[in-house]
Design a protein that fits this description.
By secondary structure, this protein is mostly beta strands. Helix content is 2%, strand content 49%. The chain contains 1 helix and 19 strands. Strands 10, 11, 13, 16, 17 and 19 form a 6-stranded antiparallel beta sheet that branches. It has a 5-stranded mixed beta sheet with strand order 3-9-8-5-6. A 4-stranded mixed beta sheet has the order 2-1-4-7, with no helix packed on it. The longest helix is centred in the middle third of the chain and has 7 residues. It is elongated, with a radius of gyration of 23 Å.
């Protein structure tokens, strides 16, 4: 899953009511526009007519919505009326809209499917509280990233989230002794740990692997006391089964720690907690 805000730039032909190609504003854009579960995205749209002249949207506001194609008349899975500076210049047809796709409706639609699912996105100009024109409507796809499964900003869906994996928002430098925050258990829920994982993503000059631990801020080696990792090449993985551990309550913060640094020239790793997040 993307971290922070992803920025996407598109040209729009108002006459065609569609995103168009960079090379010809009168050819409809057909490439894949893919979003991942939980992303916040700033869409920057440069809107013109078929002659290439910018559309003046002075005085307008905008509604950007992402919908299930089979229910276009229903509520949006995610929507936004945000106008994002500094890109926005309404008089010159430049519209920036930021949308947070981490909504219960969107997460339920995507679920944990790594296969792309079709969506429809539409941008409407609003003036005086009424929709004055449809700027464009465009097909998009959404899915869960197989490598991330679900990001650390997971939100509860219903009473129980199926088995999930929580990993940090960035790779961890195995050459630095430090603790890395992974996820704070939400109030009113518990996390039942099942497995711990470690993946080497980048390594140069492999030597002695790092010594690692898994636990919480209050108890850094609660789930794994410091142990020398056995993996020592790119894309190697190591896992530990958690047997009989108590559920970790809301308010606790899951952490991964490096207690002895790797002696490789360079090494980046990704730790992950696997388990159930339950409402209680």
């Amino acid at each position: 899953m993307a971290v922070g805000i992803k920025e996407l730039d598109f040209k729009v032909n108002q006459d065609l009511q569609s995103i168009v190609t960079d090379n010809d504003i009168n050819i409809v854009f057909t490439d894949l526009i893919l979003i991942y579960r939980g992303e916040t995205i700033q869409f920057n749209f440069a809107v013109t007519n078929k002659a290439g002249a910018p559309i003046d949207f002075s005085g307008d506001t905008f509604l950007f919505g992402i919908k299930d194609p089979s229910d276009m008349g229903g509520d949006a899975l995610a929507d936004s009326t945000d106008i994002s500076a500094p890109f926005t210049d309404l008089a010159n047809g430049l519209i920036g809209v930021t949308i947070d796709t981490n909504t219960p409706a969107m997460n339920t639609f995507i679920n944990f499917d790594i296969d792309a699912q079709g969506l429809k996105a539409e941008l409407s100009a609003i003036n005086g509280g009424e929709e004055k024109r449809l700027v464009f409507q465009q097909s998009m796809d959404a899915k869960t990233d197989a490598n991330q499964l679900i990001s650390s900003n997971v939100a509860l869906i219903g009473s129980t989230i199926p088995i999930l994996q929580l990993n940090p928002d960035a790779k961890v430098d195995a050459k630095v002794v430090a603790q890395t925050t992974i996820f704070e258990i939400p109030a009113g829920s518990v996390f039942i740990p099942l497995k711990l994982h470690l993946l080497v993503t980048d390594i140069v000059g492999a030597a002695v692997p790092p010594t690692v631990q898994f636990g919480t801020t209050a108890d850094p080696d609660l789930l794994l006391v410091p142990e020398l990792a056995l993996l020592n090449a790119q894309y190697e993985t190591q896992s530990w089964d958690i047997i009989g551990a108590e559920a970790i309550p809301g308010g606790e913060v899951l952490e991964f720690g490096i207690t002895v640094a790797s002696t490789a020239t360079n090494e980046l790793i990704i730790p992950a907690f696997e388990g159930y997040l339950l409402s209680v």
